[in-house]
Amino acid sequence: MDTHVLHRFLGLFIGLSLFISACKKDNPDTNQGNSTQTPTDDRVALTNDSIFLYAKEIYYWNQNLPTYDVFNPRQYTSNADKLKNYEANLLSIAQYSTSKYDILTVNNTDYTKFSYIEDVSGNSGVTAGVRNLTNSVNLTGQGNDVGIYDIAAYGSDTDFKVFIRAVYPGSPAARSGLTRGASITKIDGETIGDDWDRDYSYISRLLGDPFSIRLEGQKLGGSSYSISLSKQTYNSSPVYKDTVLTINNKNIGYVAYARFSDEENSFDVLDNVFSDFATKNVEDLVIDLRYNGGGYVATAEHLANLIAPSGTTGVMFVEYYNQLMQEGKATILKNQRVRNSNGEIIGTDTYASYSYKPEATGNTVNFKKAGNLSNVKNIVFLVTNNTASASELLINSLRGLSSLNIKLVGTTTYGKPVGFFPVRLESVYDLYLPSFSSKNAKGEGDYYNGFKPGTDIPGKEMLDNLGQDLDSFSEYDFGDPKELYLAEALNQLGVTASTTSNGPLMNIRSKQSNNTAQNLMKNKRSSKEFKGMIETRVR
Q: Which residues form the Tail specific protease domain (predicted)?
């Protein structure tokens, strides 16, 4: 098999699900207790069977799952929306995960935290796509929206301000000159800022998937804007911003990284950023992962190798699969042919062909220095609850190096030490079942509760006296030393940037001590982007 082609295109662990083979009673481990699994031509029933049978063999907590008869996967067929049936099936599977790690409860409602299924048919079969064509950018850098990642709102119900948290590079919003820190005072002609209950309907429209929307407000620097944005497809860089800050004769490299996208979208961009850091003799880094939900393991590995000091060798991380996979008994993977990121079958191998033992090639990953940045000593990661999966893998891998001083600034990360590979079902859906956990060279892993800055890893938790995330007060662009997260990161690196200003910074600080101040967007934003850690290496 041409492994160069596979590495180039990041061929994913996906394939066409052969339902007849997947559901046959030819595996004694899988089919024990399968007396009710009868032949059917009901496509939803067959896919529900496949979801459960794949889980029985490749789910990280597969030993906790009951028999087919007890679980009864075909019970999830009543909804007219097929995807909702499959999601209900996954939620029931997740209830069996150890300590219910795969369950996320929000407002007394359970969701899967790790397991995931998406319709990729509208994305030409490319995995990790723009889910349901809503506003986000996928893992190949393709966007399909107006370009505003998220907004923040703070103040009181009758006196609040709305700011943009991030704008996707290359998007309609970016081309119109909008950036992080720009304020929004009108949406579709309606003034917002003095009646939260009324105004939130307009804010929700922006946070949804508008085909077109008109915004007014102020850009950074104070100039007013009035623009109409229309939903478009576009190519987006994964880097929001990079810069080198020279403070107190110290050169500090800063990069805000949006997602661990595929090689074609990420590698050259990251190489150029770190080449510039090397040219400018950077020794300390601030890596902004506040809105990075993860992506490809191979990209996290590449970034770790760009960061690692010269001469770094040894284990970066080790992947641990369930016992059935380690013993080579996950025979259902014979139905999954190797494909590239365009969904095209490559060669004749299936994913039953590879070893899933920890010591196997590809499962134990070693450092292999890349790029010319050679003397990094200190790294501060900026993190929030949206920092997940491959982002956490990067942090955990680098904290396994005794040569690096790692700190976090922000709030507790998402908590996803497990990864997966997509399984193609019906030639329409990609199923993601957490299948492996990872640990660094020191054996550190299992961070299911996330990394808490200043507790789990040294640094500073960025909450005000009311327990509000200081990222809500986002009136500065990425890379601006006056921005609260970055200012604290610089403090952690032993340098102090001037934060004196006649602008909004002092107003923000006064808001923090005002009991009427609140982060009005808390728990209001639904997740837009893919959260996951996708393994793509062929072993």
A: 222-458
Q: Which of 7, 131, 531 is nearest to 295 (CA)?
A: 531
- Torsion sign, CA atoms 385, 386, 392, 398: negative
Q: How far apart (Å, rounded) are the C-alpha atoms in residues 301 and 191?
A: 46
> Residues near 252 by Cβ (< 8 Å), separated by ≥ 6?
244, 245, 246, 282, 284, 285, 286, 490, 493, 495
* Burial class, 111, CB count within 10 angstroms (exposed 0-12 / middle 13-18 / buried 19+): middle
By residue count, the chain amounts to 539
pTM: 0.88
* Identity of the residue numbered 79: N
The alpha-helical segments, DSSP class H, found in 439-527 are 484-492, 504-512
Answer whether 57's CB lies under 8 Å from 65's CB: no
First to last CA, the chain: 11
Q: What whole-number distance in Å separates Cα of residue 303 and Cα of residue 238?
A: 13
Q: Among positive and negative, which fits the CA dihedral 363, 366, 371, 374?
A: positive
Residue 408 in contact with residue 458, Cβ under 8 Å?
yes
pLDDT tens digits, 15-68? 334 333 444 433 334 456 888 888 999 999 999 999 999 999 999 999 999 999
- CA dihedral angle for residue 353, residue 322, residue 112, residue 342, rounded to 10 degrees: -20
Angle between helical axes of 82-94 and 43-58 (0-180°, round to 10): 30
Beta carbons of 365 and 316 less than 8 angstroms apart = yes
DSSP 407: E
In this prediction, what percent of the chain has a pLDDT beyond 90?
Answer: 68
- Closest listed residue to residue 224, CA positions, set 273, 250, 186, 172: 186
Residue 446 in contact with residue 440, Cβ under 8 Å?
A: no
